[in-house]
Amino acid sequence: MSAERDVSAMTAEVEVELPHPVHAVWELITDIPRMALLSPEVVHAAWLSADAGVEGSRYTARNQHGPLRWEVNGEVVTARPMVEFSWVVGDAAHPSSTWTYELRPVAEGTRCVSTSSTAAQPAWCGSWSSGRRG
Predict the structure, then answer these.
(1) pTM for the whole structure
(2) How far apart are CA 68 and CA 93, in angstroms?
(3) Most buried in the list 48, 54, 119, 130, measured by CB within 10 Å?
(4) How confident is the model over 82-128, as pLDDT tens digits?
């Protein structure tokens, strides 16, 4: 297996209608430390910036998946209140992943479109994460 080969980048998008007003959904998605309570992977998250939740604010998180543990830093790149919130993991110029939430009021609550994208990774990441060694 060549160390030069890349695993393709991936993007996933989910659209749901939530029976809650936009402001309630906004409060949830912009509360990065709360992700430790909601995510099966994030075990701790904290703001590094005093101005939490605005463009340019930074956070740190500890993640775990089975026996694997790692830390990441991220930065909010879009914070349009009640409309769109997104952050990147890693360097903002070359993020390892990007998470975006777009909100729109609908008759019964809020339509939320959640998009997550990961950058292409070296080939060893794919074989390592699938349990293969190459």
Answers:
(1) 0.82
(2) 26
(3) 119
(4) 999 999 999 888 899 999 999 999 999 999 999 999 987 655 455 44
